[in-house]
Amino acid sequence: MAGKPGLAWSILSQKCPRCRRGAMFSNPNPWNLKEMTKMPHNCPVCGQRFELEIGFWYGTAYVSYLLTVVFCGISFVLWWLTIGFSLQDSRFYWWLGINGVLLVLLQPWFMRVSRAMYLYFFVSYDEQYESTPTKTFDYSSEDYFLKKEDPVK
Ligand SMILES: [Zn+2]
Predict the structure, then answer these.
(1) Buried-most residue among 2, 87, 99, 128 (CB within 10 A)?
(2) Percentage, residues of the chain above pLDDT 70
(3) Measured in angstroms, how far is the CA atom of residue 44 from the centroid of ligand 1?
(4) pLDDT at 139
(5) Is the pLDDT at 147 greater than 90, yes or no?
(6) Calpha distance 42→20 (Å, rounded)
(7) What's the pLDDT band for 1 if we cut at 50, 70, 90?
(8) 24 CA to middle of ligand 1, Å?
(9) CA of residue 43 to ligand 1 center, whole Å
C-alpha cells in the first residue's frame, strides 16, 4: 500500500477525503459544464458517501466565496508586484477586467474545490479505509454526539 496522499494535493485534485484515492467527480474535466457537479453517490474506492445529508452542498457557497476573495487578493498582489497600479493610467481597470475574466473561467474548478474542502471539513482521512465503516451523518454514530453510557442491565 502506498503512503498517505498529501492533503493539499488531494483537495486540489478533488479526491475522496477518507481514502484520498477515489475521485469525487465523475468527469475529470471541470469545464465540461454539463457534468461540472456530477458526482458518484459513493467514493468508487472506499464507498464513502459524498453528499452526507440532503442539501449538504449548500454550505459550499461560503467556501466558494472565501476562495474567490483569496484569489482576488493574490491576483491583486501579483499584479501590484509585476505591473503595478497608478492613478495616472488605467492599469487598475485592466486588473479588474482580467481578474474578472479569470474568476469566471475558474468558477467551475472553484466550485469543485469548494465541495472538496467542505467535505474534508467533515470527513477525515482513514488509513484503514478498507476495513472500517464510512463516515455518516446518521446522528447515532458515536463521534456525532457524546457517547451515551451503556444502560445498566
Ligand atoms: Zn474514498
Answers:
(1) 99
(2) 88
(3) 7
(4) 60
(5) no
(6) 13
(7) very low
(8) 8
(9) 5
Ion ligand 1 residue ranges (Cβ < 5 Å): 16, 18-19, 22, 43, 45-46, 48
CA of 15 to the centre of ligand 1 (A): 7
- For residue 153, give the amino acid letter: K
Q: First CA to last CA across the chain, in angstroms?
A: 44
Spacing, Cα 20 to ligand 1 middle (Å): 6
- Extract the C-alpha cell encoding 11: 483537495
Rounded-to-integer distance, Cα 49 and Cα 31, Å: 24
pLDDT at 146 over 60: no
DSSP string of 80-128, one letter each residue: HHHT---SSSSHHHHHHHHHHHHHHHHHHHHHHHHHHHHHHHH----TT
Ligand 1 geometric centre to CA of 69 (Å): 29
CA-closest candidate to residue 24, choices 4, 2, 51? 51
- Owner of C-alpha cell 451523518: 137
CA of 68 from ligand 1 middle (Å) equals: 27
